[in-house]
Amino acid sequence: MILCYGNCLVLSCSSFAFLIFFIVSVVENYDYESDKLAPIILVNGMGASQIEGKWDTDNRPKFCDKKENDWEQMWLDPGVAFWTPLHLKCWAFRFQLLYDRSARKCKNQVGVKTRVKGRLGSLKASEFLTPGLISHQLPSSKYFHQMIEALKKSGYSSSRNLKAHSYDWRYAPPRQDDFNYYKRFTKLVEAVSEQTNRKVMIVGHSMGGLVTAHFLSNKTQEWKDKHIHAFLTVGTPWLGMIEAVGTYIVGLNLRIPTIDKKVTLSVQRTFQSLAFLLPEEEEFKDAVLVEWVSQNKSYTAKDYQQFFKDVKFEDGYLIREDVRPFFPFALDKLGVRFYCVWTNSSEIKTPAS
Predict the structure, then answer these.
(1) Of 74, 46, 88, 79, which is closest to residue 247 (Cα–Cα)?
(2) Statement: the pTM of the whole predicted model exceeds 0.85
(3) Closest CA to 128 of 142, 138, 117
(4) C-alpha distance from residue 198 to each of 88, 127, 191, 194, 195 (Å)
(5) CA–CA distance from 159 to each of 23, 181, 273 (Å)?
């Protein structure tokens, strides 16, 4: 389900080629000279940017290797399919978030630092989900790669007018302020706009659309009129997604059969972003979102407190209450040209579907 407010064009996208055509057609005065193309900034969805981590303490769990305190690939390591149980356990410990009930905030595990891979504007963190030339050949590793290649064929260049702004997707859009993400986003938009002498078009996929909407909602109209050409979202869950409910019950094994879902479940349910993406209470109301067959129970959006109690993760309800005031967004007040594109995933397969 997609809800659009005000000046919003909704399109059903039946092919990847059409999606690229539509993105390019939105660009003002489009032609094949790259210096006349409106610059594009891509914003990834949940789970779709590479994240690195490092130890910030010598007091580590016994099940973690005693390695040097260097930055290591945490999401996603190309060797994940061959991890030992201890390796997977250590990864889970480092990648999960802790919830501070007194401060009502999620934060990294004690002694762990994280960062998004790549420099400001780099396509590196979200073009592929894993590093390395060999893993880049895997279809499951390709994220923005096909879109980037198609845009380059249309005249775009990563050195000038095609950029990406990746973020730590474990945190909900409102928390990105804590990591200077929106300050860096502002810096990137202004730099690209100045370099190309054109307004910028932002393309947000999935949760990337929500992140960008939060960003634009907190910018002045004067700034948006000066720097933003258009905002386009692809598959953004404006009212939440039902899949988020099921993830709290069974978790996801990243489509890699060697990974134990019980381990990934313990990590994924700690993500603040997952609570943010739950179906919106006022919109879904009494609609049954999920049926837990083995427990003979079903849940609606009004049952979140009982749901989290039943899945033995009561912090989940507190996290949901923390982020609920920020969702859904008043899209009619974004103050920019706005387009929604959605696909029927049963008819079209994309790298992220």
Answers:
(1) 46
(2) yes
(3) 142
(4) 46, 24, 11, 7, 8
(5) 19, 21, 31
Question: What is the 3-class SS of 21-83, one letter each residue?
Answer: HHHHHHCCCCCCCHHHCCCEEEECCCCCCCEEEEECCCCCCCCCCCCCCCCEEEECCCCHHHC
pLDDT category at 7 given cuts 50, 70, 90 is very low
> In residues, how long is the chain?
353
User: Which tens digit of pLDDT belongs to each residue from 285-311?
Assistant: 899 998 888 889 999 999 999 999 999
CA distance 297 to 262: 21
Residue 239 CB-half CA count within 13 A:
13
Q: Which helix (H) or strand (E) holds 292?
A: strand 290-292
d(CA 202, CA 209): 9
Average pLDDT over residues 326-344: 85
Query: Over the stretch 55-80, which tens digit does the pLDDT of each residue have?
Result: 988 888 888 876 667 899 999 887 77
Dist. CA 228–CA 231, nearest whole Å:
8
Q: Which of 178, 202, 177, 173 is nearest to 189 (CA)?
A: 202
155: left (phi over 0), alpha (psi -120 to 50) or beta: left
200-205 vs 228-234, strand pairing mode:
parallel
Query: Higher-confidence residue: 136 or 61?
Result: 61
Contacts of 62-70 spanning 24+ positions with Cβ under 8 A: 63/89, 63/90, 63/93, 64/90, 64/93, 64/94, 65/90
CA–CA dist 137, 143 (Å, integer): 12
Q: Residue 8: is its pLDDT beyond 60? A: no
What H or E segment, with its residue span, contains residue 164?
A: strand 162-164
- Given a contact cutoff of 8 angstroms between Cβ atoms, the answer to whether 48 and 126 are in contact is yes
SS3 109: coil
What the block records as the tokens of 218 is: 């907190």
- What is the distance between the alpha carbons of residues 290 and 288, in angstroms, rounded to a whole number? 6
